[in-house]
Every structure is written in structure tokens, then in C-alpha cells.
Design goal:
14 helices, single chain, globular
Length: 260
Amino acid sequence: FKYLKEECSIEGQALAESFAYYDVLASQSNENGTFFSIGDYKDLFTKKIFSHNLYQGFLRPIIFLIGEIVSLLVEYNSLKASFDLPECDKFEVVSTIIERANGLDKDIQFTKLDGSYLKRIKSEEEEEVEEHLTLFELYQLSAQIYVRQVIKKLPPIVPEIEVLFFALKQDLQMLVKAKRLKNILGFPMLIAGVSAVTKEDRDDVTDLFNRMIQTCGYMSGYQKLWIVIKQIWEINKNGAFCVDWFDITKEMGWKLNLGR
């Protein structure tokens, strides 16, 4: 990986960046952790090298934070598996995990996009610039919901997730019309599905998935995601508890990647 990033041409660098992007968004990473640590990825992407893939590079700050959520989840699950500790020590461990989750949530809210990527879009293409800005906000909202779901185990029915979901749904309804973004909406589409509780919201999410499947085809990742979402809705009919989506994929024998 280091060789690809530092010694190879732009094609090698693009391959390294794609590897990091897909690694963070792989379902199995939520159980096993990412192949390389997020710290390693950050160290290698500090160079001022433009991303070969505009969207991956544009979203990089948020993708790293999602990776940190995944790493914290794996660490917490590992600690829980060995919780042969006195009650006071368990409390300290859980308190530390929650404190770190709150820190990540704050980082997500205040992270900034790299404006150099916007400069690569022609200034007259105002619609495309707006799509990029909305895409960044969409991933911010998705990551905020994700840290609440997988670390804090908040069910989708709680008000703070409802508020985030409302904004998330609005952004998605705008971006599903942008065909240039059709292959990069897997993560927010999943989060929208997991977070939808009411019939109206689930009908809206159903419409979003139908549109994406029609655009990308029935063999696309959106079809698999839709199957997972319907399973979650069947289990969590009223949104009163938290369902981990990657547990569903594991039960089905799937390795699902949200990056495509």
C-alpha cells in the first residue's frame, strides 16, 4: 500500500486511495476492523496529491471519520468480549468509549471539505458545485447517525436521529437525480433505510431505492442494500431498538461494500 501511494504513478495512487475508501465502507470491517489502521491511511494521504477519483478525494475527511467510528466499534466489541472486570472498571471503559464517540460526533459536525476539489470543477457549472456541497453534507449527516447507532446503540425512533434523518432524506431526494453520483450513495442510502420508522418515511425510502435500482440495474449494490433494509424493517417494525446492518449481511453470508 505504501509503495502504491509513494512510489507509483497517479494510477497507483488512485488504486491506493480506492483501497482505503472501499476498506472503510466494507461490511466485514465493522467486525474485523480495516485492513490497515486509519492512522496509516491518514499518514499516507497527507501529501498534497489530487485524488484521481474526484468524489473519493472530496469525501476523504468524512471517510476517515467513518473509519474511526468503525475502529472504535471493533475496539468496544473486543473489550466487551473480555469484560471480566469489576463493575467500576466496566463503567470506566464504557464511559471512555462514549466520550470518544462524542468527540467523533463533534469532529464530524465541524469537519471541513477540501476546497481544492471544488476548484477542479468549472466555475460555470454551478449545479455540479451544489451537488458536491450537498454530497458532503449528506455524508456528514450519515456519519452522525452512524456513530449514534453503532456505538451508542440509539434506536431510530429517538428524536435526535429523527431530526438528522429528516435532513438526510431531503439531501438524498435531491441527489438521486444526479446520475453522476449514482455509484457513491450506498452508505447514505443504507443509513436512510435503517433510520426510517414511520410508514411515510419508509415509503419515501422505498421510492429512493426503486429509483436507484432502476438507474443502476437489478444487479447493482443497491438491490442488495434494499434486501438488507427490508430485513431490518421486518425485525424492527416500530424502530424501537437498534439493529446492526452488518449482522444481517453476516447472517446472509454476504460481504457488502457501501462504496459502490
